[in-house]
Each structure stands twice: as C-alpha cells, then as structure tokens.
Amino acid sequence: MPRIFTASDYWFEMCADILVQEGNLELTSRYWVVGLGSGFRTLHKLLQEPRDITGTAHITKVHIGKYRSIKVTTVAIAGGPIYTEWVVALAWRRGVRAMIGVGLCGALDEELEVGDVVVPTGAIREENTTQQYVPREYPAVPDYRLLRIVQDVLKEMYPELRTHYGVVLTTPATFVEEPDWGRRWNMYRVLAVECEVSVLYTLTYLANIPCIALLVVSDHVTKSRPYEELKKLEPLIAQNYEKIAKIALETLHRYAQARE
C-alpha cells in the first residue's frame, strides 16, 4: 500500500511541534480521544493524573494521563477539516492504535433535540480535504468494532441518553446553514451537520487507525430557535458532552483490553 501522508519530514516535524512539547510524539500514548473543535477545558479532567504536553500553538490542548489500566492522550483541536487532517497524520506517525472523536453538531432531522447524542455511521464528504487523498465516491465510515463497543457502553453507562445512529454531513462552511438547506439534506435522511467527521473517518481508515466519533447536538438548523433559548440549554450540552467523553474513554479501555 502506498504511503498516505506524503508531506516532507519538515512539515511533519513542524506540525508535531505545534501539537506536542518539543515535537516529541513519544510523549503521547497509543490511544487518543480527540475533541473536534471542543474539549479544551474539559477532556483532560477526565483522566487520572493528567499532564499538559501541549506544544507551541493556541489551537490545541494536549494532555497525557490514565484511564483505568491504559494511558490515554486527550487532544483538543480547533474545528475544521485541516486541523483534523493534522491530528490524523500525527496519530499515524505516532502509531496510534485507536482514536475516538468527540464533538458537537447541528441537527437537520426534526426528531433530534438539543442535547441528543449522534453516533455517525457514515459521513458525506462535502469538505474538499479528503478529495486530495481519495475519489469522491470513497465512503467515510467508522470502525465497526468500536461501534459495537460504543453501543454496549452507551447502554450500560447512560441508557437515558437519547441516541441516534446514522449519516452526518461534513461541511467546510457554516454560514450557509438555514432551515430550507437543512431540510433538503434531511430528505436523504441526513441526521446532522458538522465540520470534521468525514475527514476523521476517511483518513483514519486509510491510515489503518480504528476510529469512531460521538457528537452532541448543540443547535438545530431546521427548527430555528432563539439564541437566548439555546443559551439556556448550554448546561445540558456540556453535561452530555462530558458523558460522551466518558463513553469514549471506556470504549478505548475495552478495545485495548480485547486487543492486548
């Protein structure tokens, strides 16, 4: 199989320096939880004895710690396709064994409510980053071993969470979203819109890194709601974001146990 990430060593080293202290990827573990445009203040708090190993940039926050019996790295990054590409490329360089993305999304399906959880079982590649790697027809899908574990963990830890499985839309533009636009996509049973999942799924699959994403609905595209009303729901969104992060950690732990 040809090398996926063909950039120069200089570019890898520069990006690693941005992500991790002294560009030393060996400071990170083999299991990563990635906050997709989120988690800067929260992800590391779920680890035992977290240690800040963030590099030079302000667009990321990286910690190493433990969850039960495994070492886990939390990586909070700015949102969007390019930063997701960076993280996957560096995870490939590090030899990461599994990765779970946690983030937020806007609902397109009227059955979804703010605070619900979406587990993307596929993503529409409307962004243009992955076109540089594979043809448009190439699917963006999660690792199904991780999906099965996520389903089990969700039922055991948080059976009360309203959870939806299905297709999401990954877009590079957010200021074109409006109700009619959302309804057109929902005609094809697209559940939600976000900015990272298709890049995460496509590139981790190419890099042979098992991966899945978990999202919390933070707003609704097809059902317009006043900003003040959504602000009141921020505690619920934060609470459920922490829950999906805990699900991600438990999923990695079980995956690691089965693998090792």
What does this 3D model show about the protein?
This protein is of the alpha/beta class and 260 residues long. The protein has one domain (9-259): Rossmann fold. Helices cover 34% and strands 27% of the residues. It is built from 7 helices and 9 strands; from the N terminus they run αββββαββαβαβαβαα. The protein has helices at residues 9-19, 81-94, 144-157, 179-186, 197-206, 227-232, 234-259; strands at 31-36, 48-52, 60-67, 70-77, 98-107, 117-125, 163-170, 190-194, 211-220. Strands 5-8-7-6-9 form a 5-stranded mixed barrel, surrounded by 4 helices. α1 (9-19) crosses α2 and α3 (144-157) crosses α7 (234-259). The longest helix is centred in the last third of the chain and has 26 residues, at 234-259. The two termini are 25 Å apart.
Which key features would you list for this structure?
single chain; 260 residues; alpha/beta; Rossmann fold; five-stranded mixed barrel; 7 helices; 9 strands; globular
- Radius of gyration, in angstroms, nearest whole number: 17 Å
Output mean pLDDT.
96
Total E-strand runs: 9
Give the name of the CATH superfamily: Nucleoside phosphorylase domain
| CATH topology title | Rossmann fold
Largest sheet report: 5 strands, mixed, barrel
Distance between the termini: 25 Å
Total domain modules? 1
* Class from helix and strand fractions: alpha/beta
Strand content: 25-35%
Provide a compact summary of the structure.
Helix content is 34%, strand content 27%.
List the helices and strands and how they pair.
Layout lengths: L8 H11 L11 E6 L11 E5 L7 E8 L2 E8 L3 H14 L3 E10 L9 E9 L18 H14 L5 E8 L8 H8 L3 E5 L2 H10 L4 E10 L6 H6 L1 H26 L1
Parallel strand pairs: 1-4, 1-5, 5-9, 6-7, 7-8
Antiparallel strand pairs: 2-3, 3-4, 5-8, 6-9
Helix pairs in contact: 1-2, 2-5, 3-7
